[in-house]
Design goal:
The chain has 18 helices and 26 strands. By secondary structure, the protein is of the alpha+beta class. Among the domains are: 111 residues, no CATH class; 231 residues, no CATH class; 81 residues. Strand 5 and strand 6 form a beta hairpin. Helix 12 runs antiparallel to helix 14. It is globular and about 105 Å long.
Length: 779
Amino acid sequence: MPLAKVVPLADGKDRKGMIEKLTYDGTTVHVHLASISLKATKAFTHGSFVFDQAKHSLTMGQLPPVPSPLDLALEKGATLNFQLVAPDGTPRKQVRSGVLTANDKQPGIFRITGMAKTERRFPAEDGWGNEIYKYRAYFSHEGLVTDAVLGKPVELPQWLKGCIARQKGLWNRLAWLCRDARRRCSPVPEKEIIQFVQETILPDIDNFNLALGREHAKRRMKHPAKLKVDMPGLDGLWNFVGELRGRIEKERPVPEGLLEKVVEFAQQYKPDYTPLNEFLNDFSEIAEREAKALGMRRFEVRPAVNGFKAVLNRRKTTGAPWSEGWPLLKFPDRPRADDWGVHYYFNKAGVKSTLLEAGPGVPGLRFGVPAKPENTGLTAGCRAAEHALREAEICIPGQKDEPWRLRFGVLCHRPLPPNSHLKEWKLLFRENKLWLCLVVELQRPLPKPAELTEPVAGLDIGWRRTEDGIRFATLYESATGTIKDMTVDLHRSPKNYAERANFRIDFGPDRWTKSTFDMLTKGTVGDKHPADQDTLDRSVIWQVYKDWKPSDGIPGIAEIVGTLERRSDYLKDTAKIRLRRYLGIRTPPWLEKAGRQGLMKLREEFHEDAGALEILDPWREEDRHIVKFIALFAARATRRMEYGQVDIAHDVCKYLRSKGVGRLVIESKFLAKMIQKHDNEYPVSLKHSQKYRQFAAPGKFVEALKQAAVKYGMVMEEREAMNSTRLHHGCGHLNPATEKEEYLCEKCGRVVKQDHNAAMNLSELGNHPRPEELEPEQV
């Protein structure tokens, strides 16, 4: 079909990389290129189209406007088709269609939204989600041909050095603007605060410490760290006021009159946070403006801006005070000042991941053929030998159409999933290590009625006490009829990760506990030890376990925490008994049910009674050490439990995948149902299970399992089950409730384990579709 109604571009400008003209044949708008370039092609395929009826022009992306065909009718909601045409008149493969939209505030302006702003083709309702694949990268590696020479300092290409310099410049500009906004918030100049700190606060503290002398060295005050910074603020002054008031409440001496001086100085000023709020609200526009002034490309801007935003967001999550946590200028001697990154972002639809794994690559990134382990110096027994070490190359269009290239090695420990889409790739240099991160969008399909015949696994969640520890989950997979118990072993010590047993969390004594009891065994406990913090911490254990013998065995973390809690209760009850005997009729009626806070309140009421203080002061000092140590051990226990639950979650997914099981069923709202059952009418054994539940944290394990299931392509369902432990999976008889782990079925006479029976029933429940999954004729 001949092309008609040609409208040339007659502006006298250089047409390289631009659009020459537009033609319209009644059905399709033909976009003629002046020359073939990536910029013009990207503007056609991804950019937004803006029609201006008053000027009869069309603007594609960031290209100059082009006169539009005069007979092209523009109506809101109409669909237009576009075809890209080469300079010689031959149609190219790029085509596009879009719907015209209009805005009442801009009459005569019609738009076709660019691909980068269109809705994703794969919604989350259909099971689609993003996942990050993080690979270790190397500038040079044995057996790979890269730009760097093995054994010599890495010499980055000039274009990458320029990117790093521009990123550092953008970061420093934003950090300086942020610091300037913070300075304008406080009506007090920093010089006045610094002068007040140096001339008033610090001298008073030094004179106070000198007056105490060596005999009372433990009562000395330290200089306020939040005021000895480059930019002290009013928050630092009020924080120091809180420290002084805390010392006074604990009856510890403070410099005379210092509290009143600081409060009087701080109260005369009121900060105004408007400049900082304006900077935070307009941060995106400010970053775009500064990046444009530096002439930065989009793949250079994203890592610097995202890193800056991460620092600002971290202040909110951690609740950092005013003078801490802000982005700092990147001086050469600053930590992580040499970090940089290259972020190459595609549109929301992404590109197929197969192009990177076995094809020509994706825009800007290409993978080579995996190298053989014997050519890379990796032995057969090495864990890295099981992964694919391959060459990777970055090729980005640079200035004047010259390619910017960088070759490096990448260790791919897991392949990209099939039928996935690559949304973004990132080359990151963090703490002298190189990483390649791939943001992949993939679908975790929900089960369909036709797929209900596949093997289904059932997972029963509980917190039953066993001889070795606590069993918090039981897995049954129907493919082979195997049952796996997941336990917290309270006796075994943590070992090397490579030697860990699957489905088990070792929760025995750690190295610090072993060395502490080793001192008791060797008899090296005494006054000869230095009075450092570690020795003070060990002394708490030595006092609690005075009668310990090596034949008793070294207790684990959970056992030590329980012993310390009992010791704390014993000291509290002893102090209450002694107080009742001493006070007599003056004893408050609420002392019988008083806890730690009640005794603290009682001490405030009788602060002038020497007899009461003689009882309460020793108790408070020893109780403070025990409570501090309980918190320390509880934090260790929490970390070990969280790491162990993540490992077991991966064990479950790997095991089910090896058996060909793709679905896992758990009981919904299991935690809320069990909590509702705990009241005063239930037996003591059921009440004790609350402690096991809080220790094993099954709710956190379920969340870790859900996250791991997404990575392994597992479908995890929650079904509402009734009487899963009482209903025998074999004969279907509903047995009476019992506290015992095993019971005898009343109908068939078989011995039934409650946890195993519940897991089997959940697996069977997964084979039955929900009412909404049934076909209309099945209902």
